[in-house]
Every structure is written in C-alpha cells, then in structure tokens.
Amino acid sequence: MSTAEELREQVRRRYAEAARAAAAGGCGCNDDGSCCGNIACEGENGSFGDALYSAEQRRELPEAATLASLGCGNPTAVAELRDEETVLDLGSGGGIDVILSAKRVGPNGIAYGLDMTDEMLALARENAAAAGVKNVHFLKGVIEQIPLSAESVDVVISNCVINLSTDKAAVLTEIARVLKPGGRVGVSDVVAEDHLTPEQRSERGSYVGCIAGALSRSEYVAGLEAAGFEQVSVEFTHEVADGMHGAIVKAIKVSRPQARALSVIEPAARAGCC
Ligand SMILES: C[S@@+](CC[C@H](N)C(=O)[O-])C[C@H]1O[C@@H](n2cnc3c(N)ncnc32)[C@H](O)[C@@H]1O
What we know:
single chain, alpha/beta, globular, binds S-adenosylmethionine
C-alpha cells in the first residue's frame, strides 16, 4: 500500500468506528483528537458537530443523525438550495446534510450522499428512513472519483471531508466535472491561515482529526480556480486550532464558453433564419 492508500484506510477505519459508536447511541468520537467532532461530543464547545445547526434544523432530524454529526460547519445554511435541484454531499457520513438538503429541494429534487465507509452508509440510510425522506440516494465511492455522470448536479456540498482527502486536486476536478455549468459549491471545511506550513498544521492536530490535511486559504482558492471555478470565496467562521479555522468555501462553475457564445448568437441566428 502507498502512503496515500494507508492514510485513506486509516481514515476509513476511524470513521467506521465512529459510525458504529453513533449507531449504538453513543458519541461518535473520543476526546483524543482521533476524528472530527470529538470536541462537540464532549460538549465542551461548538467547533464541530451538531452544535453548528440551528435548533429548528436539529428538530427535523432523528437523534441518531445529530449524534453522528462530525462536520465543522453547516453547508446547508450556506448553499442556497432550490426546489427540484440535484444536490451532492461529499463524505455524507451519518447523512445529516443529505436529509436536510432533501427537504430543501423537495420531492422532485434529489439529494445524493457519497461516502467510502460502509458503516456510515448504513447509518445514513437508517437515518434517512427514520426522517421519512424518500428523495435520497447514498452511494459508495471515493470523492476523488465521483460515481455520477458529468454535468448532472446543481449543487455540491460537503462538511469537513475535503481536508481528509489524499488527492485534493482530483476532488476539485471531479466536483467541476459533475456540476452543471453555472453549478454551485458550498462547502464547510477546516482551512489554515496562509502562513502555516504543512508541518505546522500537523503540529496542531491529526490527519484523521481533520487538522493536518487542511488546505490553506490560498491553496483552496488556487485549486478551485484551476479546476474551473469563479467567484471563489473562503470565509473563516470559527477557530478550531491556532491559525486553523472552520470555513465556508463557495464557488461557481464557469459556464462553458460555447454555452455563453450560444446564448449571444442565438437571437441573431433566429432573426436571420426562418
Ligand atoms: C468528518 S466525517 C464528516 C461526515 C459528515 N459530512 C458530517 O458532517 O457529519 C468524514 C466522512 O467522510 C468520509 N470520507 C473521508 N474521506 C473520504 C473519501 N476520500 N471518499 C469518500 N468518503 C470519504 C468518511 O467515511 C466520513 O464519513
């Protein structure tokens, strides 16, 4: 196994354990920095987990879904979801953001959750059934190779997962591929201040704990722009470690040049014919 594969396997094992604990009615993580959300589980502060959701949103969810919440933000609060849209949640965990999104896009919309961990997928399916949402699909796979066709999604959300990827460029390229032109990204993630080196990020927390693998703000912006996004913004919301923040990352997929050209050409072409 390569180092990247070993790291991914370590992440998978850790979150499988968290899912089993949440399914048994316990807290998903211990207070040892071994996964995202350990702090919220201990109830010491609201940097991670269900404390980042409004009381109204939490009332909409089964208790097991809130217990399994291991995010560092609330992407459903930042991504403007509209009726009948298709939403994809990368690293959907216990399903909290998929369930909330499914309600927002209504019965004619679709909410996909993608996760590589069987135990999380099983928990998410149980939680969605308990929440009574039918317009959800949980897919097994990795976010570096999204099992959906090109230009099939209106909005990509994610909550504290991209930092766990061992190939972030592949993730951003895949997001661009599956989004329709003009599609939106609204992601919560841990992001480092630009002056922190990768070594300094590692000193502040573990990789599986969503700290060591975090991109810096300028790395995120450059990565999204290179993948074909515009109107990129990274807004820090709360500090999770010294110089490291829960952040809201937003961007729009650049419309295809042909599509833009077509909309300009079309009226003239129509006038000149028929
Ligand atoms: C920190 S938890 C967040 C779960 C959920 N988004 C939430 O807010 O509760 C990370 C989740 O991402 C999944 N994950 C991590 N890396 C992944 C990858 N490369 N591909 C697919 N899923 C991944 C894990 O299995 C886990 O369920």
